[in-house]
Amino acid sequence: MEKIKVQDSVGAVLIHDMTQIIPGITKGPRFRKGHVVREEDIPVLLSMGKEHIYVWDQTPGLIHENEAAERLAKASCGPGITLDEPKEGKITFTAAQDGLLYVSEDGILALNSLEYIILSTLHNHRPVKKGAKIAGTRVVPLMIDETLVLEAERLANTFSTPLLEVRPLKSFKVGIVTTGSEVFQGRIQDKFGPVLKAKVEGWGSVVLGQTFASDDISMIQHSIRDHLNQGADMILVSGGMSVDPDDVTPTAIKEMGAELITYGAPVLPGAMFLLAYMGNIPILGLPGCVMYSKTTAFDLFAPRLLAGERLSRLDIVKTGHGGLCLDCPVCSYPHCSFGK
């Protein structure tokens, strides 16, 4: 701690809060601990009756918490994120656009393993809206050894992708194939179409069309190929996903030459979810729960596809940890444990 004249304090770091009292108007901290004194602060300090102030004794190799937080934030931040101004060694990250949050879990662990470094985030693959708070960083001491910050910056650069980014969802042309002889024959009303259309449009994509097929392998395959020929970027096949002998949707998809990624996901509801690819076009087999459950495996995986990912079986099976929906009376997803 060092006592210096106010007139000589530009660039110095305050070691405690300083209260300003204006009778009838305000009483509270005018300058916070850690504030870096600026030229325009001098008249204010003098008006507060301060001839001398106590500041941090500058030591070579130490940097101020605000500078350290700013460097950490910039090292961690990728596209689609806005950083606020540093305050008391803290910086808040907010989404600059609607999209899906991507977090490098290994990168966050690496940074937080360093002494005095803190980076706290929301969960990976969380849908976020523009302006939403998604992360925050800070350093613990008022002044921190710069070598720690340099090491954090080096670690962040060792990862192939940013530690944090918000990826926008692409606008896909989506074809819907609704299977089931009872629907195809008109014996019951289609309930899948309106649900899927609302979800697709809510994600910013468009429904290219919806076709109906009976429980017939060749008819299902023909409907899928018809949407592909029309330029679909994604195919949703609803119904016929159970193990009943007359539920032939998985067989139809596999036998048309698609690359099967998974038939089954460790997610409830949505265990009978199917993902396959025809070239680069994802085909999603959707179980009946998508029709009546507010949030299912479909809501976890479709946005990641729309964000440009090509999902593997490992990506699917990892969701078992957190893949249990609690069926809350009022669904609050994504503000809950589902898919985390």
TrEMBL record:
Cited SMART domains: MoCF_biosynth
Any Pfam family: MoCF_biosynth
Single GO biological process annotation from the record: Mo-molybdopterin cofactor biosynthetic process
Keywords: Magnesium, Metal-binding, Molybdenum, Molybdenum cofactor biosynthesis, Transferase
Cofactor(s) of this protein: Mg(2+)
SUPFAM superfamilies, per database record: Molybdenum cofactor biosynthesis proteins
Entry's Gene Ontology cellular component terms: cytosol
Pathway entry: Cofactor biosynthesis; molybdopterin biosynthesis
Catalysed reaction, written as an equation: adenylyl-molybdopterin + molybdate = Mo-molybdopterin + AMP + H(+)
EC number: 2.10.1.1
GO MF terms held by the record: metal ion binding; molybdopterin molybdotransferase activity
Domain MoaB/Mog: 175-307
Keyword Transmembrane appears in the UniProt entry: no
Known role: Catalyzes the insertion of molybdate into adenylated molybdopterin with the concomitant release of AMP.
Family assignment from sequence similarity: Belongs to the MoeA family.
Protein name: Molybdopterin molybdenumtransferase
Organism of provenance: Desulfosporosinus acidiphilus (strain DSM 22704 / JCM 16185 / SJ4)
